[in-house]
Amino acid sequence: MSETIKAGLAGCVGALAVVALYALAAGAPGTPSGLSSGNAASPEVAALRLDFGRNLAAGNCNGVGEPVVSVTQGIQNTVDSGEAGNYWAFDDFNRTIQLWRTSEEGTYCAVVKYTGNFKGAEGETSPGNTGVLEGRERGPIQGGYLAVIAGTLLDEPLWKTRGSVGVVDYACDLDGNCPGAINWVTQYFENDYVFQYNWWGWIYRAGGNKTWVNSSNGNSGDVI
Prior knowledge:
Number of helices: 2
Largest sheet: 9 strands, mixed
Order of helices and strands: HEHEEEEEEEE
Distance between the termini: 17 Å
Strand content: 35-45%
Shape: globular
Helix content: under 10%
Number of strands: 9
């Protein structure tokens, strides 16, 4: 996933994709202003599985009290990047965003989880960079990220802090332009925040044992 997407997704999800979350917003080939990609683990070849349940457990945050933000959001028409650096699929997601205060003043921990589906784009290089897509590749995606944010919460957040915040159409194209992308972090924090991923990962299943893992622990497999 591209950085843009991750951010959009992050703050958006692919080859760096998922840090393809719009780079969190615009998904993830580039980290948005004010965000840091953090310290990813050495890219060891990952097995064709992803233990996102353990890595995204709320207990990893060591948060204090109840979450200050606990919302769900729909994302449509975001774009995903792969190891070759190109955008290869369009994604739709439902995501949950939970944010806790930590014991360190001004520091927060976020767990963001995604479930959705991808549709490969005909003629594009596959995410694992092993061939060219026919445009029939599609299937479910699961994953997300854990991040630490240092900053000041807005006195009046731009989004509600509980429940659904609605559906956002990113309206991305295969050049990575996403005019509808929104960075969720800026809906709750002043602009001078610092963002760092502690872990991120997504698993793509295209059927027929075709699986691509895109993670801070390493990438493996492909959807073709």
